[in-house]
Amino acid sequence: MAQSFWNERFLTEDFIYGTEPNEFLVRESGRLPAGGSVLLPGDGEGRNGVWLAERGMTVLSVDGAAAGTAKTLKLAA
Predict the structure, then answer these.
(1) Would you say 49 and 61 are in contact if contact means Cβ atoms under 8 Å apart?
(2) DSSP letter string over 29-67?
(3) What are the residues whose beta carbons fall under 8 Å from the beta carbon of 11, sequence distance 6 or more?
(4) Which of 6, 12, 23, 34 could cross-link with 65 by S-S, CB 3.0 to 4.6 Å?
(5) What pLDDT digit, counting tens, does each position of 58-71 carry?
């Protein structure tokens, strides 16, 4: 049920939560080791994963909604 909810929600062209990373992530990102690896379960449309990858992190971004994963790849491109 949750998977179909999120797939439907992410089907829009717009990014539901925007493309900027979560404020908490930005504020606390200094705690992550430079060049480290990060697992982001439930990354939705990928705004946090893409932001971390742009800063040199190795990111594994996963989400149960295929529509969210597709938008992650679009944002990363």
Answers:
(1) yes
(2) GGGSPTT-EEEEET-TTSHHHHHHHHTT-EEEEE-S-HH
(3) 67
(4) 6
(5) 999 999 999 999 99
Q: pTM of the full predicted structure?
A: 0.91
Of 5, 19, 14, residue with least CA distance to 63: 5
Beta pairing partners, 58 = 37
HSE-up (13 A, CA, CB side) for residue 17: 15
Nearest to 44 by CA among 67, 28, 27: 67
What amino acid occupies position 31? Answer: R
* Residue that has been written with the tokens 């946090």 in this structure: 48
Rounded Cα–Cα distance for residues 57 and 38 (Å): 7
- Amino acid (1-letter code) at residue 38: V
Task: Copy the structure tokens of residue 76.
Answer: 């990363």
Residue 46 has pLDDT above 80, yes or no: yes
